[in-house]
Amino acid sequence: MKPRLLRQDATSFALMKGTVLDESPFPPVPDRPDLYDWLYRDTDKDIDMYRRLTAGHECILECAVGTGRLAIPLAQQGIEVHGIDNSAAMLNEFKAKLEGFPPELARRIHLEQADMRQFDLGRQYSFVFIPFGSFVYLLTLADQKACLTALRHHLAPGGTMVIDIPTWAEARDERWLDNDSRVMKVQQSIDADSGTTTEMWSTFRFDATTQLMEQDRHFRIYDREGMLQSERVVVWRSRFFLPGEFYLQADACDLEITQVYGDFQFGPFRHDSEVAVMVMRAS
């Protein structure tokens, strides 16, 4: 049986054209910070790069700040971090984490629930960024343009904007676009105290007419005896696109791309790079 695709009808065509069809909230992402943190708690591949990029900046803006994976180590450098996220649950988890840090660190972090397609914090920043591929959660061209416009509005004269996005090489390696109906195990860990095992299994659906990808993420928890205790399923929706499309969007929003890195060590962008780190300034 062929895997189910997203609907290829007038709705799909409107999405492809970049029309915002309704006033629904920001495209849904898993509102489960506990599962998010379990999945990404050991991810640190981009932290040093953003430490270096933000060095010398007194106050920065991070969009899709999540539960603080990046914001906390950046604030530990003495930088004042303003972070927005559309998920109240993510922000609440972030605030709970801050209770375990020194008060002077918590005072350097300012959080606000906001939609990165349309927000106004009433100030500008010398450094603005969307890390960890979160730009792909903008599901239409109109959403992307609205976000870039809002970010440019918050970018101080002479300031720097950075957005990292996945590439064709990563999509190929991760098999995002294959429409393979098989469920694949992505991650597993065993809790040393309780002996429980947590696993994440995924399956992907991709519609090339809209460039939209759906990922079912099944989180399964087993007891010491291997019996299934619970299972939670979340659906992640994102829009896959190539860097050339991002160039067009940036240009339409009066943003000049000044540098593109192909990894988190400031290496050159190549055909086999799994990330494109776009460094921009207002044109």
Q: What does this molecule look like?
A:
With 283 residues, the protein is α/β, with parallel strands linked by helices. The protein has 2 domains: 167 residues, Rossmann fold (3-Layer(aba) Sandwich), CATH 3.40.50.150; 62 residues, N-terminal domain of TfIIb (Single Sheet), CATH 2.20.25. Helix content is 26%, strand content 32%. The protein contains 9 helices and 11 strands. The strands form 2 sheets. The chain has a 7-stranded mixed β-sheet with strand order 3-2-1-4-5-11-10. A hairpin with a 5-residue loop joins strand 8 and strand 9. The protein is globular and about 60 Å long. It starts with 9 loop residues before the first helix and ends with a strand. The N terminus is likely disordered.
Topology:
Blueprint: H1 10-17, H2 33-40, H3 47-54, E1 59-63, H4 71-75, E2 80-85, H5 88-98, H6 103-106, E3 109-113, E4 125-130, H7 141-153, E5 155-166, H8 168-174, E6 184-190, E7 197-207, E8 212-222, E9 228-239, H9 243-252, E10 255-261, E11 275-282
Parallel strand pairs: 1-2, 1-4, 2-3, 4-5
Antiparallel strand pairs: 5-11, 6-7, 7-8, 8-9, 10-11
Instruction: Provide the CATH architecture of the largest domain.
Output: 3-Layer(aba) Sandwich
Give the class from helix and strand content and strand pairing. alpha/beta
Number of domains: 2
Relative strand content:
25-35%
Terminal residue distance: 50 Å
Number of strands: 11
What are the secondary-structure elements, in order, as H or E?
Answer: HHHEHEHHEEHEHEEEEHEE
Instruction: Give the CATH topology of the largest domain.
Output: Rossmann fold
Strand order of the largest sheet: 3-2-1-4-5-11-10
What is the count of helical runs?
A: 9
> Whole-number average pLDDT?
89
Could you estimate the helical fraction of the residues in percent?
Answer: 25-40%
- Anisotropy-based shape: globular
